[in-house]
Amino acid sequence: MNYDVAIIGGGPGGYTAANKAAVSGLKTILFEKNKLGGTCLNRGCIPMKSLIASAGTFNKMKEGEIYGIHCSDTGFSYEEILKRKNEVTDTLREGIQKSLQKNKVDIVFGEAKLTDPHHISCEGNEYEAESIILATGSIVAKPPIEGIEFCITSDEMLEGNHPLPESLVIIGGGVIGVEIGDALSDLGCRITIIEMFDHLLPNLDKDLGQRLAMFFKKKEIEVICSAQVRKISADDDRKQVTYIDKKGMEQCISAEEVLIATGRRANVSMLEDTSLEISRGIVADENGRTNIPNIYVIGDARSGNIQLAHVAEAQGENVIDLLLGKEASHDLNVIPSGIYTEPEIAAVGISEQQAKDAGMGYSTRKYLTGANGKSLIENSESGFVKLIVDENNVIIGGQLVCMHATELIGELAIAVQKKMTLSQFAEVVHPHPTISEMLWDVAK
User: Per-residue pLDDT tens for 361-384?
Assistant: First the structure.
């Protein structure tokens, strides 16, 4: 069975590339060992945001008196919350499969193995392709901690129907840890987050993590930073986490459940006797081409990649453009990211810390949500909008801590990608009263 393009992995990057290839006239086959949609749809972005939506709605109802609304007997069913999560993911997965079938992509469910530069084996069958795209995503990264087997991961929490624990220790204060912690806290779970670095969200500017920690303190979420977890143990229906605190003292905390949220690593299990270069993922150039010319890699499986679904999608489409002899459709130098806590956090471009480390001439502009009418109306927690500009007042980065930050960051992504100055951005009138007018105000 011969194909123009074979894609291993049916996540956002894989199915997006498959659809574009097929629509462009290339004979395309897609391999998926589990469910279409990959990490994002099945055990990441989508189920997490469904859980956040349910928890946020319940939290809003509890705060009804602030708005003059009196809600009595407010409660929730965690089983029904999980049922809705599963319905959302099932609906989206069905849509992906229908789209692939409509575009005449051959779909093979099974564990595919790359056996040589042009051949793939799956379920006892052999397939040949002119070009192969590896889109195999990532798997949970588990650090070498004694007793790590007693922990659950985000996979079990989000893809399965794991019961809501009474208390939860989360090891890792990155995106996964803070989102799960915030949502489950709204549903009454007692949360403790242990982070190795000196602030939450260590990949972002420190003021973002510090602001989030302040919000979490109000919610009675305990945050322990500059801590090194030594071991996890289990005793009856409780689990204990032993860690070294920032003063070098050994401490122990107990909870019903422990969640490991220390990130994900590239999945390269599909490789057999190939000569692909591997270094914490599959090494590739800026176009996704590996050291074997007809093999490409996109998404989380790629070495050094930003592990975001929209990055994988854009890379998938760019690889197909390359195969068709066209210019790449997407600029991968400007990538927005979002964190769906309450309030939301989002960032794009160069951070203040990156500008400082690079010795760049830069300045910042900051606007607080306390001066924004819509934020006050919505009783949103105090946050800010921050722009980073170069010596010529060109916007090179932006960070938001506010309502709807993940929706607004796309506007700043355009400004950064188009190298707009503050005055050019300020020319565009924004509506009032809105959260988005904070971007206008900070630019002015």
Answer: 999 999 999 999 999 999 887 899
432 given a catalytic annotation: yes
Q: Going along 19-178, which residue ranges are E strands?
A: 28-32, 106-109, 112-116, 119-122, 125-134, 138-140, 152-153, 167-171
Cα–Cα distance measured from residue 405 to residue 386, given in angstroms and rounded to the nearest whole number: 12
Catalytic residue (choose from 119, 162, 430, 432): 432
Measured in degrees and rounded to the nearest 5, phi and psi for residue 42 equal -95, -30
Domain 148-262 in CATH 3.40.50.300? The answer is: no
Tell which residue, 357, 348, 365, has the closest CA to residue 410: 348
Nearest to 170 by CA among 245, 226, 219, 221: 221
pLDDT at 273: 61
Each domain of the chain, given as residue ranges in start order, spans 2-139+265-323, 148-262, 337-443
Give the list of residues 6+ apart from residue 73 with CB closer than 8 angstroms, or none. none
Side-chain-facing half-sphere of 426: CA atoms under 13 Å: 11
Instruction: Indicate the residue type of 428.
Output: V
Global confidence as pTM: 0.94
Residue bearing tokens 């565009």: 428
Strands of the 238-244 sheet, one edge to the other? 228-235, 238-244, 250-255
Class for the domain spanning 2-139+265-323:
alpha beta
Largest CA distance in the chain: 67
Per-residue pLDDT reduced to its tens digit, 122-176: 999 999 999 999 999 999 999 999 999 999 999 999 987 889 999 999 999 999 9
Q: Report CA-CA distances (Å) from 122 to 4, 198, 201.
A: 17, 46, 40
**269 pLDDT tier (thresholds 50, 70, 90):** confident
Q: Which two tokens stand for residue 342?
A: 């309450």
Q: Same CATH topology for 2-139+265-323 and 148-262? A: yes
41: nearest Cα among 12, 21, 75 = 12
Cβ count within 10 A of residue 407: 14
CA 71 to the chain's CA centroid? 34
Average pLDDT score, the chain: 95
Residue 77: exposure state from Cβ atoms within 10 A (0-12, 13-18, ≥19): exposed
337-443 sits in which CATH class?
Answer: alpha beta
Residue with structure tokens 């081409």?
289
**Coil, helix or strand at residue 398:** strand
- Both tokens of residue 76? 């929730």
